[in-house]
Amino acid sequence: MAITIKDIARAAGVSHTTVSRALHDHPAISKETVAEIKRLAARMGYVPSATARGLKTRRTRALGVIVSHIDDPFWSEVLQGIDEVLHSAGYSLFMAATHRDKQREKEVVQAMVQRGVDGVILCAPQFSSDQSRVMQTYGLPMVIVNNEGTSDSPFLVYNDDCYGSRLLTRHLIELGHRHIAYMGNQVGGRTTVEREAGFREEMLTAGLDVRAQDVLMAPDSTPNGGHVGTQELLTLTTRPTAIMCYNDYMAIGVYSALRGAGLRIPEDVSVVGYDDITMAAYLLPPLTTLRQFKRDLGAGAANMMLRVLDTRDPAGPQPEKISFKGELVIRASTAPGRG
Known about the structure:
Helices cover 42% and strands 16% of the residues. It is built from twelve helices and twelve strands. The strands form three sheets. A six-stranded parallel beta sheet has the order 2-1-3-4-5-11, sandwiched between helices. Strands 7-6-8-9 form a four-stranded parallel beta sheet, with helices on both faces. Strands 10-12 form a two-stranded antiparallel ribbon. It starts with a helix and ends in a 10-residue tail after the last strand.
């Protein structure tokens, strides 16, 4: 149930008029009282919006979409799939980015509630469970896309990352590579865990050892993360003949670091990515990767949200989870391993 001014008043031991005035910085209320009541309201999850109190009975035909970073090319394609479906259904979108910042998360959730969206499609890895509960408090249905921290959500659309990672690893093994490095994402979460698991499972199936130093967690999944991680791999006494990247975005930095060290791709080191973002085909050499059906992920999430909103069952919508399997795309960044 949504937190009201009266709830805050009871908790603070003051009248609801005092709370209302404090939240609006009324000059009759002392600064100390204003500060204390605002702290209490924030702690209780209060969102000052008349629209929010009517969410369960009103439909605005607006939906929120939360991403971690707007500039991530993977999510931009997912968003296209979401928009194509919802625009045709007569919905408008309100989009916001968290930048993986807890305070920003809180502000984004408050903005969603205040704008009275009918539901939220969550495309933000590591989105906190606290903010998810706040949205649930206001009756906001959520559909999750590839989320790494809320995989227990009843409405989930995701890529089978373990399967995709095994395809990439098998490709490298079939080329004769025996010393393969996996570069993951230090931020952590379900996606990086499952991609690493797929790599390890396929190596084990082939009877190949995975040295501890050959599994490296880069600081993030950006080109900078790939560049930093590759520089560390290049310090190893026995360098890998192939590098498997958490995603294509990271692979861009891997290319830069390898070339900076005077190494050729794929003659000296083969490189594979994950996602098949648009620019992957235009790198030199073009990147071997795992194609995720990104627009399908977005469209699947949007259609799932429409089903949730349109349910007529008094017990509410039934839980639904949809998994997509990607496909291997072989380009010129991989070649037979040395030796």
